[in-house]
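The data are quoted verbatim for reference:
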Amino acid sequence: MADDTLNIDLQARKVTGKAVKHLRKEGQIPAVIHDHGKPSINVQGNNVALIKLWRQAGKHHPVEIKTDNQNFVALIKEASFDPKKHQLTHLVFNAVDKDQKVEAEIPIRPKYQDDNEASPAERAGLIVLSQLETLSVRAIANKLPDFMEYDAEKLVDIGDHIIVADLVSPEGVEILTEPEHSIVTVYEPSALAAANDAAGGDAEPGDEANVESEEGSKEDDKITQEPENLPGGHNQKEPKPASIEAAHEDKKT
């Protein structure tokens, strides 16, 4: 749970707009704190410290921020990265009341039995494709889970799948993602390969349903997949940023 406290000291920032590029050259990352409709607070912090914070907190773990004479509890709303260098360039924090319910994105990960690092389907040579890597949830800020798990031991045969409704939600955590949304599905390698060939190398999960497998087609096993969201939104096994154009990030500062 999010009871583990993450702290960071940030300094007030006077530099805005395109001038923030000079901050980055000095090892500083610009950020902003939004506080319940009050004027936003421009801040900056050490590059290394903020990158470490982003990796630890993602978009679901409360962070205690100290800046000048003010203290905030906040969630990271957005992280911007340089599309070429893949370096963190900007953070947006949303101040929250740690005793009030907030919405956040929680990573989903498999839970294996004993020391296994693969599902029964994977151990049998089948392919398990992930179709959802984060959940949208609502809970009291300091009770947000760091992750939620699905039982990977239930993935055995072609067509086996796990949906959001199969997850066991921790007490006090409300799952907002549609219950019928598929999380993972088991596919036959040859069907995926055939679908990829038919699509000219651009096949996506679900296309293999149009190709008859070695064991014959299964109408009941066809899964419709919703488009995946890139890191920074939904779909990240670990919190990973999406590349955002530099012009966009400067506009936010």
